[in-house]
Design a protein that fits this description.
Layout (H helix, E strand, L loop, with lengths): L1 H23 L5 H9 L10 H16 L4 H14 L6 H27 L3 H50 L4 H11 L5 H15 L4 H12 L2 H16 L3 H30 L1 H29 L1
């Protein structure tokens, strides 16, 4: 127990020192600040203090718990879909996950020591805490992916309307994407960042088809995949992009209305559970309560 107290004290002091360092550490340089003011997707990530510290923490931990190349690629793809485009995002995620796996049993041991619980309780709750520390980051990451995909899906309809106006006004596809990205700034930031990355990839020399396919992989939204396939086919076969975009915008608007109707139909079904658990018992108690009390008085008098 004395050794445990020493370890916990050292951990608390170490976390306090790290917190003070992160609070008073120097911020990003002038170049990074100017890039962020121009476009958030251009911000440098290699010199981040958090990612550097996460690399130092995760390097010995990854040796103890290695990860395969397939799992690393899958994790990097999930982080991209959640909006974390830093190359060190997977390392940071692994560091957080392994730190929670090690920290949760220590927290449980401390609680058991303070409450005076036996060792059997510590073993059971220690296993539960390890599983909790392993699955909690994955659960949060999954929730972030779903929330971002939902925002992108709802922003796609506005994007398609703007694309129709821009293409039919005579702009080329690259110029139309650039114009749509400028118009979506502040209204749909997730979609604006993704379109900005597509424009940047085209500027640095990548083909339009590859940049659009990367857009579909980064988002993981089925409607984006359909839109990318439509643009690639129209560009490959030389058909009218304006007509294809207008048809796709009409179908997407219909699909968005159907999704809203589906959500409204589900709301009535979802209200059954809270009504049954909370409202109906209160109504029954209010209506039958006086009669039950009178019946009890009549039977026991």
């Amino acid at each position: 127990m004395l050794l445990l107290i020493i370890i916990l004290t050292f951990g608390c002091v170490a976390f306090a020192v790290m917190s003070l360092y992160l609070m008073f550490a120097p911020r990003a340089g002038v170049v990074n600040t100017r890039l962020e003011s121009m476009d958030p997707s251009l911000a440098l990530v290699e010199n981040s203090t958090v990612t550097t510290m996460a690399e130092r923490v995760a390097e010995p931990l990854n040796r103890i718990v290695p990860i395969s190349a397939v799992e690393a690629a899958k994790l990097q793809k999930q982080l991209l879909q959640a909006g974390y485009r830093s190359p060190d995002a997977a390392t940071t995620f692994r560091a957080i996950q392994i730190t929670l796996i090690l920290a949760m049993p220590i927290l449980v041991a401390t609680v058991c020591f303070i409450l005076g619980r036996p060792l059997n309780n510590f073993l059971i709750w220690g296993i539960i805490s390890i599983a909790f520390g392993f699955y909690l980051p994955k659960y949060i990451l999954r929730k972030k992916i779903l929330a971002r995909q939902r925002r992108i899906t709802w922003a796609l309809a506005d994007m398609m309307d703007l694309m129709v106006v821009a293409v039919e006004a005579g702009l080329a596809l690259n110029a139309a994407l650039n114009r749509v990205g400028d118009e979506l700034r502040g209204l749909h930031p997730d979609m604006q960042h993704e379109i900005g990355l597509v424009n940047l990839e085209i500027r640095v020399g990548r083909s339009r088809e590859e940049a659009l396919r990367n857009l579909a992989e980064r988002t993981g939204v089925d409607d984006i995949r359909s839109f990318v396939a439509l643009l690639i086919q129209a560009d490959r076969y030389g058909s009218s992009i304006a007509k294809a975009v207008r048809i796709f915008a009409d179908s997407l608007r219909t699909k968005r209305r159907q999704r809203a109707e589906q959500a409204s139909q589900k709301a009535a079904l979802k209200l059954i559970v809270p009504l049954t658990l909370f409202l109906f018992p209160v109504i029954i108690l209010v209506v039958l309560g006086p009669a039950i009390l009178n019946l009890i008085d009549l039977l026991f008098s």
